[in-house]
Amino acid sequence: MAVQTFTVTEEEEGLRLDRWFKRRMPGLSLSHLNKIVRTGEVRVNGSRVKTATRLAPGQMVRVPPLQLPESAAPARFDPEADKRTLQDLILFEDRQLLVLNKPFGLAVQGGSGQTRHIDGMLAALASERGERPVLVHRLDRDTSGVLLAAKTRKIAAELGEVFRSRQARKIYWALVHGVPKPAQGRISLYLAKDGGMKQQTAAAARGAKAGGEKEKMRVAAHGEEDARHSLTYYAVVDKAPPLLSWLSLKPVTGRTHQLRAHMEAIGHPVVGDPKYGGRPAGGDALRALPGAAERKLHLLARRLVLPHPKGGMLDVTAPLPPHMRHAFGIFGFDITRFDPIEDAPG
Is the pLDDT of residue 341 over 80? Predict the structure, then answer.
């Protein structure tokens, strides 16, 4: 395993370095982490740090070669197969950027139980100088849609600042249980990990459960440890009452599982969400979506708009994944319909 450089994402803002490693590399022992931090092998933006150092979006974390347990070691990839797969997913590409249409079920980064993920596959697109694309943000394993990578570390750092300063505009589409009232609104909540570090560490030791996710977020009170503010604007685009609605969502912040936790909090969880299912309003919409294949998370990172590092604006839209396209067809939703979230702040 060679030296690697990772970009801190928006949802990792404020994480302690040791917790960042626990999330990214759950197989790494605390004693080994303490050693490589103490000897200066781990660097953040080129500087020595401590395990208690808090991270900010856009920072670059240098990780030395690690000896991980076999079960936690990165999977071996087939460069040619990975290259073909990634090329089929490209929505936009130029000399600085690569935008992919991430499919449902493909993890963005490695972790316990993950044997194939986009971060590892990107090594197949390394340049002749050995520089490979760097992920700038993340999506949940079961969320589909627009995923941005930078082709150099310098561009990754610039884009990290764009996300940190909230210049990036993100729009998601979701099918949710029931019909939210009012039809347009804002959700402003504090979110924190559900269970704390001891339970999270135990979960990591047990390995990923079905769905590939160990973490869950809960609504927290202001001032609680690790509680972070989260803000989302939503708008009902169309509906099939009382079963479900098509929502357009604009997250202003980028917390872990933010949209899924927010939808559960207002009583209208995303259709097909096994983690944030809550108590759906309006009945079980899945009954109208026959087949086990349709019991998938109906959440799409639909559009990403941000300043391009070389000038102008990047504006990329992802198509509906097959399971959402099927659901839209069942309920007669027209994707050309006006999206009221366009007028929301943020």
Answer: yes
> Could you count the other beta carbons within 10 Å of the beta carbon of residue 41?
15
What would the two tokens of residue 266 be? 């207002």
Are 329 and 240 in contact by the 8 Å Cβ rule? The answer is no
344, amino acid identity: A
Question: What residues are annotated to the active site?
Answer: 140
Residues 6+ apart with CB under 8 A from 72: 25, 26, 27, 28, 112
Average pLDDT value for residue range 308-327: 95
Contact between 318 and 146 under an 8 Å Cβ cutoff? The reply is: yes
CA distance 97 to 75: 25
Instruction: Give yes or no for residue 306 having a pLDDT over 80.
Output: yes
Which phi-psi region, left, alpha or beta, contains residue 8 (left: φ > 0; alpha: ψ -120 to 50)? beta
- Nearest-angstrom CA–CA distance, 32 and 327: 48
Mean pLDDT over each residue of the chain, to the nearest integer: 85
Q: Which domains, ranges and CATH numbers included, belong to the chain?
A: 1-69 (3.10.290.10), 171-343 (3.30.2350.10)
